[in-house]
Amino acid sequence: MSLEVDVVIQRTTRRITAHFATGAGITALFGPSGAGKSSVIEAIAGLLRPVAGRIVLDGDVLFDVAQGLDRKPEARGCGVVFQDLRLFPHRSVRDNLLYGWRLASPDRRFLTLDDACVFLGIASLLDRRPRTLSGGEAQRVAIGRALLSGPRLLLLDEPLSSLDAARREEIMGVIERIRDDLRLPMVLVSHRADEVERLADSVVALGD
Amino acid sequence: MLSPDDWAIVALSLKVGLVAVLLTLPVAFALAWVLARTRFPGRLLLDALVHLPLVLPPVVMGWLLLLGFGANGPFGRFFAELGVTFLFRWTGAALAAAVMALPLMVRAIRLSLEAVDPRLEAAARTLGAGPWRAFATVALPLSLPGVLAATVLGLARSLGEFGATITFVSNIPGETRTLPLAIYSALQMPGGDAQVVRLAAISVALSLGALVASEALARRMGGTRVA
Question: Looking at domain A3-205, which of 4.10.910.10, 3.40.50.450, 3.40.50.720, 3.40.50.300 is its CATH number?
């Protein structure tokens, strides 16, 4: 896998530039809060339109200002685990997990619901509503929902920031297993050096 | 107890009110969506137009309906060719009630649409849903209690409609004489006091029931935000 990002993003008060190319494994976007790490994730996912530049995933141009090309988020194959998780409050955990799975073409799926439940240890949560989950449980469901949609790249926005030490350890283990067992490339946003040091295969520093 | 005449008035009012609300609902939803989710020049003007029936004297609204939907009005002629006439008919009473209920319904639906976190729809997009599917599977179900509340509120408003109705379609027993018009007529009639009391009691009961139902539905909107 290869990912090339070369974008300029205009937010209301500032301008963010990101320029990097990366390969398999975990790429960490590292920098202080406010450096625009989340904006870069949103731009890769197609939720935010950069004012200039291009994004290429595996030779597939997702975004290119010069060509006037802007692939829709649903056609990019980028799974996202949002910092605020964004689980659907009106659906059960099972329906949250299956939302993207049902929409994915069968050849894109690499997990079944049962696989994901075993992989993430969430089988007992299936009939619960998102608001009844603890922080660590909700985090695992959000990761499962993204994985089941059959992405070719997983984007994780500060997946550890809201967790206590034990849960952090647990989720870091999950992320390592996604890399080692599922061999899914990931871009991980973090503002903590220890996380980056442990998880990242390559590091992209963002900041002023 | 209610006389057969009273029952007929209640039945006519409910028919007029329900048709009015069902007619208004898709229009109100579309307008609410446009006002909540889009930005375009002229949006303020559209917003003002939608709210016009709320502040305009109802008699003026009725007169405008006469101009537009009367026998010689542009819309009146169009609908006459389809076999629908409004003047002095219950259909006209339903149209008047629909127009008067529109602003209330647009407001309530718009509030419920604006309460749905757009970030949830963004999440649905990254999971493979197109914009319409994301709307239908996320925003629509989350705003549904608000839409139902708006419908009940619109029904209550329709049942109370007086000024535009009497101006547009007059006060014809069995055809356009809905609850408020029947109360007005009974007040003018010697010995009509007993009927006034009965019909007014029904009006209070229907309105109160609608408001309670609408409020209960709107409360269910709580807890749909992510953060």
Answer: 3.40.50.300
